[in-house]
Amino acid sequence: MKRFTLLFLSLFILGSAFAQNADKKWAIGLGPGIYQNLEKNELGFMGDFYLSRYLSPSFDLLLKAPGGFYNDGVDFFNPSLNLRFKFFNGNILSETSSIQPYLFAGPGMLWDNMDNGLNFNAGLGSKFPLSPSTSLYLEAGYVHGIDGERHINNQLTAVQDNLLRLTGIIEFAFGAAKDSDGDGVPDRRDRCPDTPPGVQVDEHG
């Protein structure tokens, strides 16, 4: 537990230096969570990891790999490809809004005990900016289970373990913004994209 806490704090500190946006298009997220098995009404701990690619002010693409742990063992593993729709796209809410809600959904491959197969998951969440470069993501999601069979009361019974999950994630981004004239202002915000070398500029180039 101490190692996990130290890892989470390390990622939080790294996240203070990077945040995903149109300038830094790639990001990594990692965080803990809990899940409930709706079939068995059991609670377990889980971890979530993903690689994210900024597509536009409205959409991100995520390759997610959450896993759940129950009774000191791995209960499920569910890599998936998700599309995240951001309400803080400049049209619905400001890109600098203090609360930044989003929806996500996508297909995946679920390994659940001895069963495996294609599934899908969906959910909602919000990004909470903590500083100009650090944000906390809180998510609630639904994981649709796969059809399987299990021995219950000495009988082979058809089951489908659907899950609800809650996670908290710290995300940090990497990459560099394109700056054609080298004045320190990214091209997408540069009103003078051909500034000569040595000329002093403001935040707009």
TrEMBL record:
Residues 1-19 form the signal peptide. Gene3D superfamilies: 2.40.160.20. The keyword Signal applies. Residues 179-193 have a biased composition (Basic and acidic residues). Keywords: Signal. One of its GO terms (molecular function) is calcium ion binding. The keyword Glycoprotein does not apply. This is Outer membrane protein beta-barrel domain-containing protein. It comes from Mariniphaga anaerophila. Residues 179-205 are annotated as: Disordered. It comes from the Bacteria.
